[in-house]
Structures are given as structure tokens and as C-alpha cells.
Amino acid sequence: KTAKKTAAKRTAKKTKKKVAEPAAKRKSVKTVKKAAAKKKPEVSALLKRVVKSLDDDKADDIVSIDLAGRSSLCDALVVASGHSTRHVASCAQHLVERLKAAGYNPRADGLAQGDWALVDAGDVIVHVFRPEVRTYYDIEGMWSVAEPKPKRRK
């Protein structure tokens, strides 16, 4: 009987430990959420750096769209136009070089074609288009639409 009682006590202690673990994990989740809330100034600094780089390279029609809370993909989207395929590729390449020099880890795609270059800087995604391609895809129109409000049922 004593062996059964000690085994029951061990099982009870293990159960208590398992119950205590999720509470500790919940605290770490709150810490992560607080860290994400503190990240906003970094996003605005990155966004300013991106817009300044595009402006320095004479990109046209630079538009910044705030996607915080609307997309899990990124917090901001920047769309700009270049005059030619070479100008589009050059703006994107210079942006990647400047962001790497500032300590970010950007990735780029579409530099070889030059019609549409995409730079993923993490919290900010940048699209650089030729004007005709920008009009065709209308990225600003797609993301600028206000979110539909849920209808209330009576």
C-alpha cells in the first residue's frame, strides 16, 4: 500500500509541474508581445531609410502604405517608379546595399529583368516598377482599400 501511495504522490507532483509550465510559457509570450510593441520605432526608422534611399536615387511617385495590423507579412509597403529597366534595377540594388551597410538583411528579386524589382527588408517590403508595369498591377489600389467592417446581425 505504501508503494502505491508514493507512486500516487509522484504522479501528483508531476501533474503539478506540468500545470506550472504553461504559466511560465504565458509570461514569455507576453514578453514577446511587449518586444513586438517596442519594435515600432525600428519600423519607422527603416521606412524613413528606405524612402530616403529611393528619393536619393530619383525614384518617382514614392508611396508608403501602412499595413500594421492588416497583414502578417509586413508592417509597411513602399511602392516607387523608375524611369527605365536600368533605373529600376539600380534603385533596388542601391537600396539593398544601403540597408546592408546599416545592418539590415534585405533580399531582392527581379533585378535582372528590371520591370519590377522587389526588396524584402523584413518589416518593410519595397516594390520598384517601371511606370507601365506599376499601372498594370496597381499594387497601391489593392492594399489601399479600407478593410470591410463586419456586419452586425440583428
Describe the structure.
The protein has 154 residues and is of the alpha+beta class. 55% of the residues lie in helices and 18% in strands. It contains 5 helices and 5 strands. The chain has helices at 2-38, 40-56, 85-101, 131-137, 139-144; strands at 60-66, 76-81, 107-109, 116-120, 124-129. It has a 5-stranded mixed beta sheet with strand order 1-2-5-4-3. A hairpin with a 3-residue loop joins strand 4 (116-120) and strand 5. The longest helix is centred in the first third of the chain and has 37 residues, at 2-38. The protein is globular. The termini are far apart.
> Given the helix and strand composition, which structural class is it?
alpha+beta
Number of strands: 5
Q: What is the strand content?
A: 15-25%
Order of strands in the sheet with the most strands? Answer: 1-2-5-4-3
CA-based gyration radius: 25 Å
Assembly type of the chains comes to: single chain
Biggest sheet overview? 5 strands, mixed
Count up the helices: 5
User: Residue-averaged pLDDT, rounded?
Assistant: 77
* 3D shape: globular
- Cα end-to-end separation: 63 Å
Stretches where pLDDT falls below 50 for ≥5 residues?
13-39
Residues in helices, as a percent range:
40-55%
Could you spell the SSE succession in H and E letters? Answer: HHEEHEEEHH
